[in-house]
Specification:
The complex is a heterodimer of chains A (about 140) and B (about 60).
Chain A (H helix, E strand, L loop, with lengths): L1 H26 L7 H23 L2 E3 L5 E3 L7 H28 L6 H14 L6 E4 L2 E4 L1
Parallel strand pairs in A: 1-3
Antiparallel strand pairs in A: 1-2, 3-4
Chain B lengths: L1 H24 L3 H16 L3 H5 L12
Classes of the chains: A alpha+beta (about 140), B mainly alpha (about 60).
Chain lengths: ~140, ~60
Amino acid sequence: MSLLSTTRRRLGACLLGLVMAAAVHAQGNLEIDTPAIAALKQSMQKRHAQLAPLYAAGAVGLAADGTVALRDAGSVPLAQRTQANAAIAAENADRAALYREIARANDHPEWEADVRRTFAQRWIDRAQPGWWVQQGGKWVQK
Amino acid sequence: MPDASRWLLAAVLAMSASACVTINIYFPAAAAEKAADRIIDEVWQLREGAAAAPAPGPAQGESK
């Protein structure tokens, strides 16, 4: 009898957990408010002032793997090419760290690739008209 | 007979426990999309609030 009641209690606890998990799901929020993520966002936001003209000029595009890539080096004046390359490398380092941190902040480091895929799609979907994005292995202008 | 019911309970318990685990392992795609949009809004400063706060000039100084 006591085994049965313990089992029942456990089952109840598990069901409660299930309902709560479902509720969290329905609410649908990933944890993104951590100091590490905030710092990455700020760093990327600051760099965006430098990258935005490069997107608009078609020099840099949004790649399918959630990174940014030098698409047309010719449209960057020679004097600014090193700086542009540095910005691209720094941006990609921040983005990789961001995807990793989001997966980690939600206690699922194995979600990193899924997070990256989701971001890749959203960066591309939300790119401004005139920017270049990678779709199906090809560069297309939005 | 009590043996059989004990087995049944154990089976149900195991199944519900695995259901709990499954729900947590599943990648919440919709939530991730929402999180991505929130971050993209901030990084690209696409929200009205974010756009209104800083000076609108495209060329900004390095430090405040």
